[in-house]
Amino acid sequence: MWLFAFFAIGILANTINVTQAFDYKCNLTAKGSPKFPESFSFGVSTAAYQIEGAWNEDGKGESIWDHFTHNFPEMMDDRSNGDVAADSYHRFDQDLAALKELKVTHYRFSISWPRIYPTGDISSKNQKGIDYYNGVIDKLLANGIQPLVTMFHYDLPIEIQKLGGFANPLIINMFVTYAIELFENFGDRVKLWNTFNEPFDYCKPGYADANYPPQVHAPGVADYLCMDHSLKAHAATYRTYRAKFYEKQRGKIGLTLSSRFFFSHTNNAEDISRGMQFNLGFLGHPIWSNTGGYPKAMVETIQSNSLKEGRISSRLPRLDGKWKEIVKGAADFLGLNYYTSRYIRRASKPMGESPSWERDYDSDAYPDETWVRGKPEWLYCVPEGLEGILKYIRDEFGNPEVIITENGWSDDGDPEDDDRIYFIKAHMQAVLNAANDGCNVTGYTVWSLIDNFEWQKGYTHKFGLYAVNMTSPNKERSPRKSAKYYRNVIETKTLPSIV
Ligand code: BGC
User: Fold this and answer.
1) Domains of the chain as residue ranges with CATH
2) What is the SS3 assignment for 132?
3) How far is the CA of 381 from the centre of ligand 1 (A)?
4) Is the Cβ–Cβ distance between 225 and 208 less than 8 Å?
5) Where residue 499 falls among pLDDT bands split at 50, 70, 90?
6) Which of 146, 191, 292, 378 would bridge with 106, disulfide CB 3.0–4.6 Å?
7) Residue 398 alpha carbon to ligand 1 centre in Å
8) If 0-12 CB within 10 Å is exposed, 13-18 middle and 19+ buried, where does residue 83 land?
9) Can you tell me the mean pLDDT for 330-342?
10) Helix (H, G, I), strand (E, B) or coil at 136
11) Cα gap 44→424, rounded to integer Å
């Protein structure tokens, strides 16, 4: 009841249009129509390991994140893990109540591979895991909320890791087998699929920097293999769906990439282009560019550095012939996770260790000191970067459909989270400006619906529109001020002023 009052007061305050309480730099000037198109989809996002808990229940197998948090608790700021998290496995109804209150049109969540195949392999199929996601999907649809399902959000079955995980090309077939299981069980109702969430963000920390599981330190080699195998697994899944499922199921399949946009203090277009090629372009170029294949700057630099290192071939795997064709065009939409941007210039000294992505990149990416910063050291509010990246996709990638699959702000958990509201408003303005300028962007998704396990930050950084009482047995969810604002956006399809 109080919740209703909370929203009602907020909406009233917005209509009165109280003058903005304070000046803030996290904003963006509006260009064009103030209204999102009728068909635009508004959502929120979560991921299995970050919210579900129930890490060893109902037959679920161990994932690399279970193993990592249990064996190396010192790697998390608060020594925490996802054993219980927000307990969404038992409390999806509480999440659903929040989704209904927000009036979102889609919900992006991920399926835990080791819940479906506890050992990663089809022989271990676990019906209870399938039942759980059937329940989630059915309840969403019964409430008019479209599921956008991510197949993989970092929680690889440990048994696959024992074979080398993403460094072993076996992962391609194993992933396709798992994806087929998902299509067969859920594809009659799920029409929006994400294969992988942000390959760069599990490949680099997991296989180069060794601060994420599987803690492999083989920079410039294993991270590139991981990227290559993720890309091929994605494309093989896409082709399988089109050949075997599309006719009946009529769904769309996308890959979610994360990227920053780049600016240059000296207006150096080459520096900016290099930044884009080494980030969004790494997996974006092979799928969406005219020519296909890895981006030129990466191919040339990594080949040349590899030869200098005394190797006989490039550390960047080959993407030519049959695979190049399979990959090119293998997506119905680009899922974009956008959080922040940087200025860029060519490095004046060797970057990182040799070899590594940093050494190959040979660029210095740095924030502008005037940008407003969030709690994480990397997160600055740069909405013009989102507008820029959407236009880059329009111009360089042939204007494919884009769904913003994540965008969000983290803080200490204040219920009066004005900073998050400014961040969301400014970034949605960027999306609207881009849409008004011909970009084919059809959806926006806030990270996150609820507070959750923020990987190495544990529970110390809060991204939720809803707070979760992590110490209470019932894990109550309660809306922050931003939840009210976002609902107001969804209801009006505009960006009301902030009060
Ligand atoms: C990831 C999320 C993460 C968020 C905030 C994204 O890159 O997909 O899992 O919680 O960033 O760090």
Assistant:
1) 36-339+381-492 (3.20.20.80)
2) helix
3) 16
4) no
5) confident
6) 146
7) 27
8) middle
9) 99
10) helix
11) 12
Cα 222 from Cα 214, distance rounded (Å): 11
Q: Which residues are catalytic?
A: 198, 406
Question: Is 433's C-beta closer than 6 angstroms to any atom of ligand 1?
Answer: no
Distance CA 110, CA 8 (A): 32
Please give the distance of CA 169 from its chain centroid, rounded to a whole number: 23
What would the pLDDT profile of 57-113 be if each residue is shown by its tens digit?
999 999 999 999 999 999 999 999 999 999 999 999 999 999 999 999 999 999 999
Q: Which of 280, 447, 449, 468 to mutate to test the pocket of ligand 1 (most atoms within 8 A of CB)?
A: 447
Q: In a mutational test of the pocket of ligand 1, which residue from 455, 461, 463, 465 has the highest number of ligand atoms less than 8 Å from its CB?
A: 455
Q: How many CA atoms lie within 13 A of 185 on its CB side?
A: 23
d(CA 420, CA 187): 35
CA 344 to chain centre: 23
Atom of ligand 1 minimally distant from the CA of 376 = 12
Query: Ligand 1 within 6 A of 258 CB?
Result: yes
For residue range 268-289, what is the model confidence (pLDDT) as tens digits? 999 999 999 999 999 999 999 9
- pLDDT over 50 (residue 410): yes
Q: Which atom of ligand 1 is nearest to the CA of 447?
A: 4
Site of tokens 């994932």: 63
CB proximity list for 4: less than 8 A, separation 6 or greater: none
Residues 391 and 397: their CA atoms lie apart, in Å, by: 10
Gap from CA of 5 to ligand 1 centroid (Å):
32
Report the C-alpha gap between 17 and 272 in whole angstroms.
Answer: 40
Ligand 1 in reach of 406 Cβ (< 6 A): yes
CA angle 234, 240, 241 (to 5 degrees): 90
Q: Take residue 271 and report the two structure tokens written for it.
A: 């520096």
Q: How far apart are alpha carbons 96 and 201 in whole angstroms?
A: 28
Report the distance separating Cα 329 and Cα 333, nearest Å: 10
CB 198 near ligand 1, within 6 Å:
yes
Separation of 118 CA from ligand 1 center, angstroms?
24
What percentage of the chain's residues is helix, strand, coil (to nearest 5)? 45, 15, 40
| Ligand 1 neighbourhood includes 121 CB (under 6 angstroms) | no
- Is 193 within 8 Å of 252 (Cβ atoms)? yes
pLDDT at 370: 92
Structure tokens given for 5: 């009052």
Each residue's pLDDT tens digit, 212-221: 999 999 999 9
In three-state secondary structure terms, 203 is helix
Cis peptide before 213 (omega within 30 of 0): no
So what's the pLDDT on residue 21?
A: 41
Report the mean per-residue pLDDT for the chain: 95
Q: What is the pLDDT of residues 437-489, one digit of tens each?
A: 999 999 999 999 999 999 999 999 999 999 999 999 999 999 999 999 999 99
